[in-house]
Structure formats: structure tokens, C-alpha cells
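Reminder to self: C-alpha cells first, then the designed residues, so the page reads top to bottom the way the pipeline ran.
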């Protein structure tokens, strides 16, 4: 139900609502949220192409452009790093093409660079119960990391980039076991 509300909110006239909906869908949206995000980001890009200067904040003037820029950035980030779906190189190149302004384009190009770097990287972040950076995806639990890993095709190769942080050995063992079961190779970098 919340996903449906967030998807409908992508068409709101208030850019702050659009940005918040995109951020929600990035974190909690299922695969069915990806197409509405693409539609909204494409429309946003078409609207602002050639009008990039209107998205910059100018002291003493309305902040509307800044809110629109935030909505566009959240839409792009949701597509590139959403938990519920996997973007490939073709989709990331599309994001680069749809990007408006140098900051957004640079961010989209960084997502593409991470995707093209092989083997893909998994990094354990010793925060809370442990967080994981899997290529461009930020996952907040081992369960979320495993769900994301299963979206990658069989035969994918990952390199675990980490040290000896508390809880890391257990996380590596658990994720490595799951990866092996699903035809994904995970190698540990020696520190």
C-alpha cells in the first residue's frame, strides 16, 4: 500500500513530495516501482533539458529550482541504486544521457564506472549490525545484502574488500555461502 502511495506521489506537483517518494521507492520499492521511476525521471529530464541554470539556487530568489534539482537527483539515485531491482550498463548509460547538469551527470557517470569495474566490489561497513556496499548499492543489513546479491546473474564475480572489523568474518562466511549456492563467485581480498 505504501509503495502505491509513493508511486502516485511521483506525479505530484510539489518537487519535495516527488523527491521523498523516489527516496522511499529506492529503499523499499519492489521491481514494479522501477518503470514508474523511469517514466517520471524521463519526463523530469525532458522538462529541464536546456534549463539547467534554473535548477541552481540564487540567494534572494525562490528555492523552487533547488527543490526541483533535489527531486531529479532523488529520481536518478533511486533508479541507479534501488534495492528492489538491478540496473545494468545499458540502463546506467541511459541515466547518464538523461542527467541534467554537471553534478547529476557526474554522479550517473560514477555509478556507471562502478558497474564497469570488475570484479564487482562488496565492502562491509561496521556500523550498527553491519552495512554493505555492493557495487553502487548501499544495503543496511545482511538480509538486504543477500537479497541484492541474488539479483545479479549466475557467474558474477565479486571481491570482498574489507578488513577484520567486528562481525565481518561472520558476514563474509554467510554471504559467501549464499553466493556459492547461487553460482556467484566471491573472493576475499587479503589485507
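Designed residues (191 positions):
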Amino acid at each position: 500500500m505504501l509503495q502505491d502511495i509513493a508511486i502516485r506521489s511521483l506525479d505530484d506537483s510539489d518537487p519535495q513530495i516527488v523527491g521523498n517518494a523516489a527516496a522511499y521507492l529506492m529503499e523499499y520499492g519492489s521491481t514494479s516501482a522501477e518503470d514508474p521511476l523511469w517514466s517520471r525521471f524521463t519526463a523530469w529530464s525532458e522538462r529541464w533539458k536546456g534549463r539547467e541554470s534554473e535548477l541552481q539556487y540564487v540567494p534572494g530568489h525562490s528555492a523552487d529550482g533547488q527543490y526541483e534539482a533535489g527531486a531529479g537527483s532523488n529520481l536518478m539515485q533511486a533508479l541507479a541504486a534501488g534495492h528492489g531491482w538491478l540496473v545494468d550498463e545499458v540502463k546506467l548509460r541511459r541515466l547518464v544521457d538523461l542527467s541534467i547538469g554537471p553534478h547529476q551527470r557526474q554522479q550517473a557517470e560514477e555509478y556507471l564506472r562502478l558497474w564497469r569495474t570488475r570484479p564487482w566490489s562488496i565492502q562491509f561497513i561496521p556500523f550498527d549490525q553491519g552495512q554493505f556496499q555492493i557495487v553502487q548499492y548501499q544495503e543496511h543489513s545482511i538480509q538486504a545484502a543477500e537479497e541484492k546479491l541474488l539479483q545479479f546473474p549466475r557467474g558474477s564475480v565479486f571481491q570482498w574488500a574489507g578488513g577484520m572489523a567486528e562481525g565481518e568474518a561472520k558476514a563474509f562466511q554467510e554471504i559467501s555461502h549464499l553466493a556459492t549456492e547461487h553460482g556467484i563467485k566471491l573472493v576475499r581480498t587479503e589485507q
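Helices lie at 2-9, 15-28, 34-48, 64-81, 89-98, 101-116, 142-149, 168-181.
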